[in-house]
Amino acid sequence: MYIDPHAHMVSRTTDDYEAMAAAGVVALIEPAFWVGQPRTFVGTYVDYLSSLVGWERFRAGQFGIRHYCTIGLNSKEANNEALAEGVMEWLPRFAMKEGVVAIGEIGYDEQTPLEEKYFRAQLALAKELALPVMVHTPHRDKKRGTSRSMDVCEEMGLDPSWVVIDHNNEETVRETLDRGYWAGFSIYPSTKMGNARMVELLRHYGGDRIIVDSACDWGISDCLGVAKTARLALASGIDAQVVRQVTYANALCVYGKSGQIHESDWLDPPEIDQRTLYEGNSILRGGREPRIEHPRQAADDLLID
């Protein structure tokens, strides 16, 4: 069984939830992020955060997947100061809701002064609320941005063992691990990391403090990135214990510090009943037959037939 600790499911279809469940994903974490269209009002951001702790949590459960999220102001929209100030006022209220396992994804995009201002403010919030942090590292000038992200975390007094530095690559992983942080890798086609490269990193570094995620979103991405990487790693001779660490146990360990995610959530899951409504709405459309069943007890192996 797998945890995908970075999946933007608000951008995905219910087919993806079905595929992930069939591949062995028992839980996922959905970070707050930039949805592509710039938001111009605080209210639209509040509605988005509400969907992360509400509708998406319900929708995932209708397919037997436990849904958690992280709450934050993303780096790109931190550059809209009026919007950012409004969002910051709302964040504490959302950060304390059920199923919120971290502040994130936060950090740098273009590494501007405004991005740094709100990055620091959210690190202070995470520290105040005793929540882990998910850090987004920039696509451009990544090595400098990753080092700077860790510098700022340390200046703000964060314990590295509570911080996941995400979107690592071969250029950044050594420093991330040497400084005591969790190193996230997003299996995202063409831009962040391919799973064959990931297997070679596991062969070199092992599984300690390494986390694999899909980062699937509205771009060309794969919601089965974690499951496919696990299969490829096993087929390539990576030890099953290492695969389990990076696709399941490490995410549970660091995000479990929030007190909001527990293995018993999916080992003893509630019944799937697609007749259930959320604020008057179901996931069904047009007379479709609902699934009513008890989820299959998750197997403890990592192979997907």
Automatic annotation (TrEMBL):
Q: Which Gene3D superfamilies match?
A: Metal-dependent hydrolases (3.20.20.140)
- Pfam families (UniProt xref): TatD_DNase
Please tell me whether the keyword Transcription is annotated for this protein.
Answer: no
Segment forming the signal sequence: none
GO MF annotation: an example: hydrolase activity, acting on ester bonds
Alphabetical UniProt keywords: Hydrolase, Metal-binding
Output the InterPro entries linked to this UniProt entry.
Metal_Hydrolase (IPR032466), TatD-like (IPR001130), UCP005295 (IPR012022)
Q: Which domain of life is it from?
A: Bacteria
Q: Which protein family is it in? A: Belongs to the metallo-dependent hydrolases superfamily.
What's the name of the protein?
Answer: TatD family hydrolase
Q: Which species is listed as the source?
A: Salinicola endophyticus
